[in-house]
Amino acid sequence: MPDKIQMNTPLVEIDGDEMARVMWGMVKERLLLPYIDLKTEYYDLALQKRDETEDQITIEAAEAITRYGVGVKCATITPNAARVKEYNLKQEWKSPNATIRAILDGTVFRKPILVKNIKPAVKNWKKPIIVGRHAYGDVYKNVEYRVEGPGNAELIFTNERGEEVRQTIQKFNGPGIIQGIHNLDASIKSFAEACFSYALDQKVDLWFATKDTISKTYDNNFKGIFEEIYEAKYKERFEKAGITYFYTLIDDAVARIINSEGGMLWALKNYDGDVMSDMLASAFGSLAMMTSVLVSPNGYFEYESAHGTVQKHYARYLGGEKTSTNPVAVIFAWTGALRKRGELDTIPGLEVFADKLEAAVVKTIEDGIMTGDLAKLAEPPAAKIVYTEEFIDEVASRLGEEF
Ligand code: NAP
Ligand code: MG
After folding, report:
1. Which letter, b or e, does each residue of 266-289 get, where b requires 16 or more Cβ atoms within 10 Å of its Cβ?
2. Ligand 1, atom 26: nearest CA belongs to which residue?
3. SS3 at position 277
4. I need a labelling partner for 179 at 20 to 30 A (CA). Which of 43, 140, 153, 249 fits?
5. CATH annotation of 1-115+286-403
6. In angstroms, rounded to a whole number, what is the distance separating the alpha carbons of residues 316 and 319?
């Protein structure tokens, strides 16, 4: 075994819940700690801890990322009514991802991890489709109201001088629902900047789509800001790099993406990105074969897995069963964060380690050794379907050959 790789700045390590948390521990133990003198500042976002701290721990974790620059996050439970009961919570705490994203601002880029023996469901897709998801506002920062009976709903804006603008939303004759959402030009601008520069960095076309024909102020504002920034700052650089910026309606974009070869960055509003990234992940193989990074305009990075806590597998795990849960996205969250830390602190060893670990993962799967989710999709069929721990051990042995 070589000397362990030393780190200067700690990574902000954000632990989570259920099966994702179990895999988190295994990955650290077997793949990272043997090679790296791992420095982290640890925040435990297990649902019980969030409840104990009135969710302050989530805010502290996000603030730590603003101090150190790079975080790595495990999947966490976003409580709903059932979880409030299950964990006896003080309240239905907000999604930690939404809280962290609101503090860091920025854009979430999700990119599928391609391996030779898993063919995308869409047969003409040859290259990864990267999704750039705006991570601020809209329905994730909404205000909702349940209308119990007849009445008048109005949208009122009061400016600094106290002047009011009023619009009727709906005259209700009976029960219904209302939702108020917003976004900020500053956030949309940094979303656009992040997408244009990520497309340049990866040398891929950028597509952007909204529903501006219906939402003539809200969505049209997104479209306008993208156009303005493109014309003013990126048009020439895109032309030089031989890539294009393309705007179309969201429904048209969905159809075109399906018929494409892939290989583009698809910029999407918050909700569209949430939904489309899960669809793309499944079509490319599995949610567990997707990398995800939040890039903030202030230069902060948060790496995470795109999938959730894999609750159903956890129930089986608690029942004493071994599960074949796929740890690839958890591993790639760590490699992404370690590589970025290496880049920022000029520690080439960390970057090389990240490359080698990712290569060991890909090699394991291409050798036909995989978890059950991938075995369903593998072509040729899997040589060996393994439990999570066995998969990690197979990766560890291939990684070991590299050192
Ligand atoms: P999920 O945890 O992503 O799991 C949904 C299903 O997808 C699983 O039951 C499993 O299918 C499959 N799957 C996902 N990840 C997998 C993996 N690594 N390996 C193998 N199969 C995998 O979504 P969920 O069940 O809707 O949500 C569970 C909890 O996660 C919720 O409390 C939710 O709030 C939270 N969540 C957190 C995040 C986050 O922190 N980033 C994101 C999404 C959801 P099979 O059962 O068919 O094997
Ligand atoms: Mg989602």
Report:
1. bbbbbebbbebbbebbbbbbbbbb
2. 308
3. helix
4. 249
5. 3.40.718.10
6. 5
Closest to 305 (Cα-Cα) out of 324, 285, 290: 290
Question: What's the full length of the chain, in residues?
Answer: 403
Domain-wise residue ranges, the chain: 1-115+286-403, 119-137+183-284, 143-180
Ligand in closest contact with the CA of 101: 1
pLDDT of the chain, 403 residues: tens digit per residue: 668 999 999 999 999 999 999 999 999 999 999 999 999 999 999 999 999 999 999 999 999 999 999 999 999 999 999 999 999 999 999 999 989 988 988 788 999 999 999 989 999 999 999 999 998 899 999 999 999 999 999 999 999 999 999 999 999 999 999 999 999 999 999 999 999 988 987 889 999 999 999 999 999 999 999 999 999 999 999 999 999 999 999 999 999 999 999 999 999 999 999 899 888 988 988 889 989 999 887 789 999 998 999 999 999 999 999 999 999 999 999 999 999 999 999 999 999 999 999 999 999 999 999 999 999 989 999 999 999 999 999 999 999 998 8
Nearest C-alpha to atom 4 of ligand 1 is from which residue?
310
pTM, to two decimals = 0.86
State which of 310, 314, 326, 387 you would mutate to test the pocket of ligand 1, scoring each by most atoms of that ligand within 8 A of its C-beta.
310
